Recover the amino acids of this structure.
C-alpha cells in the first residue's frame, strides 16, 4: 500500500483540499468566532476570535484563499479575559468577552466599526461585570439589530457558579447604546426563583445549566434555537423579546454527558441538528454526538439518528478532546454557505468532518480533514474547534491551541 | 398540521445533489489489459506521482499460488493480492470482501487513510462483472464509486492481431480510457493506424500514450467526463463487428418513470448484450443532469448533479452493446416515448 502520511503524524484528508494554513503569527489558538466580511474595497476579511489571551481578535485577508495575510491583530486588556466569540454583520463586528472567574472586570459585549479593517474602532462597550458573572461566552449577531448571547449579568445571581450565563437579547439598533431587550434562564437556577433547583448531573459531568449557542434565523425571526449545556436544547418563542417563552425542550442527559452546544434548524426539511460538546480529554466523555431531530412538530422534537462518531480506539488517546463541538451553522449573512444536505462539523482531535444527511435516518460521513498536530500543540494533537464556510464554498477550520486557521476546498 | 415525513428527506428524488459523479466516495480505478500489456508498469509509475498519493492497489494474480492477502498486507508490501482465480469469477467476491474490509479498517485506524483504490485485473478478465459490483453490492456502492475502467493496450501485439480475441475487444469497447503501450517499438505510422482502430471500436474513450499517462496519472485516474459525444463508430472488422458504441440524444426532458421503464424493457430483453450504458439524463423537474450507469442488467443508483456542465441540456446516453444496433435501441425508446427516431 502506498501511504503519503507517515505513521505517527496523525494526519488524514478525505475529500477536502487544503489551500493554506496560517498560524496567526504564533497566536494560533482560536475560539468559536469565525466570520467573514467583504470590505468596501472588495477585500474579503476573515475575523477570528482567539481562544485565550493575550490576543483578542485577528483580521485575515483571505481574498486569495491560498495566500492569507494578517491585516490586524488586537490584544486583550487583561490576561484573564478571552474573547472566544465574534460575529460580523456588514461593517459592524460584535465581540464577546469572558473572564476566568466571576467578579473579574472587563467582561461584556463590544461593537466594533471595521469599515477600515486595519483600524477597528470601538463603537460601544456594554459591561456584563457582576459578582457572579464571568461575562459573555458566545454571541449571535446576524440581522444588524439584535445580539443574542450567552452571558452573565450584574444582577444575575445563580445558585451554582456554573449556571451564571443565561440567554440575553441585546438591542443594538443604536449601536452606540446597546440595551437589553430581554433574557431567559432555566427556572430554578437563579437565586430568588420559585421553581425548584434542577438536579445536577453526576460529579465529573456537571458542566452547568447555562446558555451556549443562541441561533436566530430570518426564516423564523420569532424563534431562538438555544443550546443550554446540561439542560439540553430549547426552542424559544421570542416574538416578544422582553419575555422569551419555552416552546419545547429536548434533553438527552443523563444517560449522556450533557453540554448541549448547538441547535441548527433546517427549516425546509423540518430537521434540527444538535451537538453536544466534548469537554474532557482522552475520550472521558465519549460519545459526544451530533443528533438529528425530527422537528416537524416544534413542540415535540424527536431524535431519529446520530452522525456516525469518530472511532474511539483511533482517537481517544491521541491527546486532548475527541468528539463533537461546533457546526457550520448556515449563518444567515451573505458571506455564508448554505446547505441542508451536507453538515460540516468540528470534532477536536478527530478533525473536521462532513456528513451527507440526505437520508436523515442514516447520516453518512463523506469527508474529513485531520491535520497533523501543529507545532506547540499542548495536547500533542490537533484540536479543531470551529468552522465557517463562506458563500464561495471556502472552508475555514480553526485549531483551539496552536494551528491557527486551515483554509480548505470541499470536494464532495 | 404536521408535515408528511417525506419532508425530512428534502432535496430531490435522487438524494443529495452532487458537484460531480461519485462525489464523497472513494474512487476505484479498474485497470485491465492482457498479460504483458504494461499494467503493472503503469500503476507503479502512477504511485510515484503525487496525484496518486494515498492509493491502495489491489492485484488479481491469476494462476499464481493462492497467497493470503492478510499476510501480504501485514508485511507492508505495497499491494494487496487477491487469491487464486480470475477476478471475473470467483475472485470477484474476494474483491468485494477486500474493499469492504479496507473501508472498515480505514475507519477504525487499523490501516492508514487512503483516498483511492486501483485494481489491477488479471489479463484474462472480462471487466463487466467487476464493474457490476458497484451496482449489485449496495454496501460497497455506499462507500466506493467506479473511478473509471482503464484498458492497457499492448501496441505491438494489438497491431499484429488480424482478428482480435473477444475478451480483448470487450476490454477495449467498455473502457473509459485506453492506454497505448510500446508505441515506440511500433513506429509512428502503425501507432496511428492502431489508434484510429481503437477509436473506431470505442469512440468515447481517449487513447493516451503510456508515456503521457506515466508522466501525468491524472489522465487516466481522474474520473471520466460523461459523455464525450464523439461520433458513433463507423468501421469495424472480424469480432469487432459484433460490438457497437453509439450515443442517443433526446432533446425533451424525460419523465423519470418513463425513462426507467424504457431501460427496464431494454435490459430485460437484451441485458446480456448491454455491456455498458452511461450518460446524463435530463429529468423533468431537476436542476442538473441525472447520471445513470448500467452494466448489463444492473443499474447503479442514479445521481443528480448540481448543474449541467455546459449549455447543452439534452439527454446523452452512451450505449456499448454486443449484437445490438443503434436502430433497435432508438426504436424501443421511440416506441415508449411516442417519439420519431
Amino acid at each position: 500500500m502506498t501511504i503519503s502520511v507517515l505513521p505517527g503524524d496523525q494526519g488524514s484528508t478525505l475529500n477536502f483540499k487544503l489551500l493554506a494554513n496560517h498560524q496567526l503569527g504564533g497566536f494560533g489558538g482560536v475560539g468559536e468566532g469565525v466570520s467573514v466580511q467583504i470590505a468596501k474595497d472588495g477585500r474579503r476579511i476573515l475575523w477570528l476570535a482567539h481562544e485565550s489571551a493575550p490576543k483578542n481578535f485577528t483580521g485575515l485577508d483571505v481574498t486569495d484563499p491560498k495566500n492569507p495575510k494578517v491585516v490586524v491583530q488586537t490584544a486583550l486588556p487583561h490576561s484573564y479575559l478571552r474573547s472566544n466569540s465574534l460575529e460580523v454583520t456588514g461593517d459592524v463586528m460584535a465581540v464577546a468577552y469572558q473572564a476566568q472567574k466571576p467578579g473579574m472586570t472587563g467582561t461584556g459585549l463590544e461593537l466594533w466599526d471595521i469599515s477600515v479593517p486595519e483600524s477597528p474602532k470601538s463603537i460601544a462597550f456594554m459591561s456584563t461585570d457582576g459578582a457572579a458573572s464571568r461575562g459573555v461566552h458566545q454571541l449571535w449577531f446576524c440581522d444588524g439589530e439584535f445580539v443574542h448571547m450567552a452571558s452573565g449579568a450584574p444582577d444575575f445571581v445563580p445558585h451554582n457558579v456554573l449556571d451564571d450565563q443565561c440567554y440575553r437579547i441585546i438591542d443594538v439598533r443604536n449601536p452606540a447604546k446597546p440595551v437589553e431587550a430581554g433574557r431567559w434562564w432555566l427556572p430554578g437556577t437563579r437565586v430568588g426563583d420559585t421553581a425548584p433547583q434542577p438536579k445536577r448531573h453526576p460529579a465529573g459531568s456537571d458542566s452547568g445549566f447555562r446558555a451556549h449557542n443562541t441561533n436566530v434565523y430570518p426564516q423564523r425571526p420569532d424563534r431562538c434555537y438555544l443550546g443550554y449545556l446540561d439542560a439540553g436544547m430549547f426552542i424559544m418563542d421570542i416574538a416578544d423579546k422582553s419575555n422569551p417563552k419555552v416552546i419545547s425542550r429536548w434533553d438527552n442527559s443523563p444517560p449522556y454527558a450533557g453540554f448541549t452546544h448547538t441547535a441548527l434548524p433546517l427549516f425546509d426539511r423540518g430537521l434540527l441538528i444538535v451537538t453536544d460538546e466534548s469537554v474532557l480529554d482522552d475520550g472521558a466523555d465519549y460519545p459526544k454526538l451530533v443528533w438529528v431531530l425530527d422537528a416537524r412538530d416544534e413542540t415535540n422534537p424527536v431524535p431519529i439518528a446520530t452522525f456516525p462518531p469518530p472511532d474511539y480506539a483511533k482517537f481517544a488517546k491521541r491527546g486532548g478532546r475527541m468528539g463533537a463541538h461546533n457546526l457550520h451553522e448556515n449563518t444567515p449573512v451573505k458571506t455564508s454557505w448554505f446547505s441542508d444536505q451536507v453538515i460540516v462539523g468540528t470534532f477536536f482531535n478527530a478533525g473536521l468532518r462532513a456528513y451527507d444527511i440526505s437520508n436523515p435516518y442514516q447520516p453518512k460521513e463523506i469527508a474529513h480533514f485531520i491535520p497533523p498536530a501543529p507545532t506547540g500543540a499542548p495536547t500533542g494533537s490537533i484540536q479543531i474547534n470551529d468552522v465557517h464556510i463562506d458563500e464561495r464554498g471556502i472552508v475555514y477550520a480553526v485549531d483551539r491551541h496552536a494551528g491557527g486557521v486551515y483554509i480548505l476546498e470541499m470536494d464532495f | 398540521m404536521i408535515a408528511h415525513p417525506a419532508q425530512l428527506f428534502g432535496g430531490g428524488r435522487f438524494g443529495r445533489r452532487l458537484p460531480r459523479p461519485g462525489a464523497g466516495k472513494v474512487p476505484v480505478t479498474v485497470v485491465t489489459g492482457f498479460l504483458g500489456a504494461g499494467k503493472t508498469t503503469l500503476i507503479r509509475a502512477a504511485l510515484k506521482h503525487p496525484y496518486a498519493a494515498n492509493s491502495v492497489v489491489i492485484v488479481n494474480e491469476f494462476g499464481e499460488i493462492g497467497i493470503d492477502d492478510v499476510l501480504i498486507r501485514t508485511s507492508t508490501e505495497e499491494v494487496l493480492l487477491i487469491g487464486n482465480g480470475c477476478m471475473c469469477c470467483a475472485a470477484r467476491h474476494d474483491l468485494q470482501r477486500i474493499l469492504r474490509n479496507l473501508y472498515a479498517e480505514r475507519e477504525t485506524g487499523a490501516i492508514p487513510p487512503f483516498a483511492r483504490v486501483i485494481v489491477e485485473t488479471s489479463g484474462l478478465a472480462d471487466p463487466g462483472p467487476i464493474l457490476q459490483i458497484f451496482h449489485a453490492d449496495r454496501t460497497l456502492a455506499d462507500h466506493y464509486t467506479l473511478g473509471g475502467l482503464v484498458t492497457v493496450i499492448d501496441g505491438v501485439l494489438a497491431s499484429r492481431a488480424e482478428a482480435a480475441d473477444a475478451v480483448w475487444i470487450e476490454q477495449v469497447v467498455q473502457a473509459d480510457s485506453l492506454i497505448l503501450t510500446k508505441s515506440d517499438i511500433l513506429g509512428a505510422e502503425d501507432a496511428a493506424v492502431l489508434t484510429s482502430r481503437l477509436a473506431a471500436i470505442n469512440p468515447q474513450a481517449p487513447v493516451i500514450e503510456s508515456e503521457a499517462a506515466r508522466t501525468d496519472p491524472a489522465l487516466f485516474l481522474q474520473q471520466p467526463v460523461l459523455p464525450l459525444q464523439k461520433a458513433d463508430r463507423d468501421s469495424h472488422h472480424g469480432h469487432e463487428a459484433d460490438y457497437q458504441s453509439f450515443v442517443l440524444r433526446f432533446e425533451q426532458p424525460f419523465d423519470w418513470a418513463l425513462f426507467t421503464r424504457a431501460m427496464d424493457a431494454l435490459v430485460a430483453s437484451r441485458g446480456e448484450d448491454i455491456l455498458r450504458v452511461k450518460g446524463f439524463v435530463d429529468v423533468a423537474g431537476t436542476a442538473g443532469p441525472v447520471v445513470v450507469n448500467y452494466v448489463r442488467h444492473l443499474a447503479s443508483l442514479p445521481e443528480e448533479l448540481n448543474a449541467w456542465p455546459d449549455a447543452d441540456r439534452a439527454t446523452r446516453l452512451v450505449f456499448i452493446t454486443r449484437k445490438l444496433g443503434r436502430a433497435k435501441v432508438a426504436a424501443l425508446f421511440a416506441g415508449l416515448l411516442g417519439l420519431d427516431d
